[in-house]
Amino acid sequence: MPTLHPFRVPSDRNVRKWAIADVEQAAPSCHQARMNSSPTIAAAQQFLATVWDGEAPSDEALLRALDRLVAAYHETPHGDVADAEIDAPRQDGASLYKQVAERFPKFGYYPVADPTKPLEDALMTADAIDDLADLTLDMREVTWFAEHVSIDDAHFAFRLHHFHWGQHARELAIFLCGRLWG
Q: What is the C-alpha separation between 91 and 67, in angstroms, rounded?
C-alpha cells in the first residue's frame, strides 16, 4: 500500500504565478478556439486545406469545400474593420496561377453564360485555374485577418469580397458538376 502524504496548500503568491502562466500559455489556444468557433473562418481554412494540403483533391472534395464557402456567407456576421490601413500580405497572382496550373493540370477554360446579357451575347469563357487562384487569394486574406487582426476584420473581408470569390466559386462548382456528372 502506498504511503499517503498530506496535501500541502500552495501559497497565494505561487497560485497567482501559476494562474498567470496558465492564462499566458492558453492565450494562443483561446484565440485559436475563438477563431475556430467561426463557421466562416472554418470554411475558409477547410477550402485552403482541401486545395493545398496533401494530394490534389478530387472534384467531389473540391465541390464540397466550395459549397461550404458559399453556405458560410449566409451565416457570416457583417464584421467591422479595426484599422482601414491594415492590408493582408498577398501573393503575386501570376506565381499563384502557375502553382494552381501545376497542381490541377486537367483544369483550364470552360464555357459560362452571363445571365444579364441577351442570349446571343451571353456565352463567355471562364478559367478553372484562375477561379482557384482568386479563391485562394481571397481565403488567405480572410484567414490572415482572423489570425493577425480580428475575427470581425476577417468576417468583413469575407463578406466584402463575396461579389468576387462568390462568382468564382459558383462558376467553378458548375464546372466541377459537369466533370462529375456531365
A: 25
